[in-house]
Amino acid sequence: MHKLYLMTRSEENYIKTIFHLGRQGTQDVATNAIAELMETKPSSVTDMIKKLSEKDLVNYKRYQGVSLTSLGNKTALSIIRKHRLWEVFLVEKLDFSWDEVHEVAEQLEHIKSDKLIDSLDRLLAFPKFDPHGDPIPDKNGGFKERDRDLLSEVPIRTVGVCVGVKDSSATFLKFLDKNGIALGNQIKVMEREEFDGSLNIEIDGRNMQISHVIASNLYIKTNDGI
Amino acid sequence: MHKLYLMTRSEENYIKTIFHLGRQGTQDVATNAIAELMETKPSSVTDMIKKLSEKDLVNYKRYQGVSLTSLGNKTALSIIRKHRLWEVFLVEKLDFSWDEVHEVAEQLEHIKSDKLIDSLDRLLAFPKFDPHGDPIPDKNGGFKERDRDLLSEVPIRTVGVCVGVKDSSATFLKFLDKNGIALGNQIKVMEREEFDGSLNIEIDGRNMQISHVIASNLYIKTNDGI
DNA sequence: ACAAATTTTTAGATTTGCCTAAATTTTAAT
DNA sequence: ATTAAAATTTAGGCAAATCTAAAAATTTGT
Ligand SMILES: [Mn+2]
Ligand SMILES: [Mn+2]
Ligand SMILES: [Mn+2]
Ligand SMILES: [Mn+2]
Q1: Model confidence, pTM
Q2: Ranges of each domain in chain A
């Protein structure tokens, strides 16, 4: 049924990468894209894809890109569930900041124990989102993307709550910390400068000017959603 | 200074094994002993020992056995600290039983993050002993063996508290559970049958007969220690 | 003391995951 | 429709960690 349990760390990392690339863009995932994201060589990717294909984790035809099978998808969701639960644990229980958790979670996500991850889930009171606002799949791989919009794309006078970041690099997260921007903040878009796309926003009372780049990496949940 | 951080999982497991073998017996550790404990072949052990010797983690002369250097010892203690802290975490925070923790801790002990392990230590309120009664080294590798005796070796009428197990296999631990023997229990040795070494003990009120094998795998801390 | 048994090491092979360089296929441009 | 460029795969090799079989060193038994 599932040989999920005898996957190597490397195999798991490939599956995870293919999952992430597959969900932004409707095409099959390109060898080069995987290589770039994983900081490895295209020829190595081809080797691994063949192995994953043997194991029925990906659909693969030479030169035609790759996509996850249903088994591969399930596997990816299980790894992502672990990654994000560990991130919550590190923030909630060990006082890590949101820019420190990813690196450690990259290691912890490969620990094999169903009991461990389900108990962790319970300890954390079954969180639905990780510290960056990303959804946490449940035990069966089910999860719902939250309705949200990029701050850069909502109309003037939109009001909402900051619920996620698109770029979750430590650099960006630390910038947000420095400027007092955090998940949960109330945000109202006051003005958009058409010349450079920068925004004037009101965030938890304060007034602040943010560049287009910043705005296009912040998600808000508006109040007017149905 | 410390390249502790670029050790492979396999190297770490060898160091840990050499540490454990080295501390029971005054001799240098034999290749065969390592191979047996790690369920690998002596030739593989020789290969790895050479590598560890290159890295100044062990002292090695061909055919003469192996011992940890000061750096190797420090490394071993750091891994054991992680292993035992994770075991405490699993029992205290995730409701694992003491026979379930070892396997998962074998994986978790290889996670690399100083901040992680020190925060975990704090979350657990700096425990001094793991669920099997074994001491947890502090951040600097310091730890004290607790004064304790094998139940099989104390004189009749000795009174003490059960503080540890020698064999911490799941089989033995589950046997103890089934018979209501746990760390913290008050124990008084009532009678020793010289024929087979079995003991009649009073444990938390109850009276019970235990074989020599059982008694020789239980540690007690007596009240009459200086 | 010295042959036999045991332990340990060497030699050579295998698997996994990665690499470089060269060949092949697909895609883009004229 | 060809050709040029880009993407992908193949071929061949390398390092880590393991194995088997054979050789070398040590230990044991008489
Ligand atoms: Mn992450
Ligand atoms: Mn995250
Ligand atoms: Mn253990
Ligand atoms: Mn233990």
Answers
A1: 0.94
A2: 1-140, 149-222
